[in-house]
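Board notes, transcribed. Complex of a protein with zinc ion.
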Amino acid sequence: MSAPNLIIGVDIGGTKIAAGLISDNGDLKRSVVVPTLAEGGFKVSLKQVFAAIGGILSMDGINRRSVKGIGICAPGPLDPTRGIVFNPPNLPGWKNIDIVSRVKRKFKIDARLENDANAAAMAEMVWGAARGHKDIFYVTVSTGIGTGIIINEKIYHGKNGMAGEGGHMTINYDDKSAVCGCGQIGCVEALASGTYTENRLKEKLKRSPRRKTILRSMTGGDIDKITMRVIARAARKKDEFATQTIKEQGELLGVWVGGMISLLDPEIIVIGGGVSMIGELIFREIRKSAYCHTINIFAKKTPIVRAKLKKDSGIFGAASIFMRK
Ligand SMILES: [Zn+2]
């Protein structure tokens, strides 16, 4: 029997770069994490990318000939077909960088590039919650909202490689308080991501200092320390204000997910990211709202489930792009 193929997955983030060696059956064999040193500019952070990959290849017992590829995922905007990173806000100096050809040249191993949400969608299909499905809508809800669309086992890229930016669909253009990081008003990201939900809750509490909630005592009276994690904990303790906040967030996400079901009629919807850790408390609301806000008469048969790959999901995402064309 031949040895399994090995793939290196590299997840380039604004603060750290994680690389790992994964076998095609989804075993993470080795991994390293190095700081991105993004503030040092492109040359410094590229060196860190090389150091992470080199770190894996130089580990004991690694036969580089068994490594069939290096999958790279990075924040967008980027062009996966040409392997170019345009100018992500958290990677200063990375302007029109042909990262794929640089990595290929340096290591003499095939390489591919994908944006992080698309890669995470692929990993869920190959090794995670969407195994066995071909048409998948993937969502990650944490500081922002990222999405990935998989049609017939392939990532849908669109004409310029820019498709799948579902987090920037407007769900309320009237809400002038919901200004999104992208500059638009009322994107679902600006209304229902973890960061925006936290911020809105903090503002409400500051405006109503007498509102009853255990959130204040949970953070020693410092409202600014309230995070989604704290909100979820308070909701589990039946705090009404926290529960209401999560219900509203779930409902907003559901309105948008319902639209996605109308548009894509996917086999499964997988939701990952920090907010998905809240669990059934929010999934219940998302499902209820999504199934109401769609024209698809089969919507209730569309599972809306939690992502399976959590820890090292970036590495799995990057590696998974070598599992499919
Ligand atoms: Zn936006």
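Residues 168, 180, 182, 184, 187, 189-190 surround zinc ion (CB under 6 Å). The chain has two domains: 6-115+312-320, 129-306.
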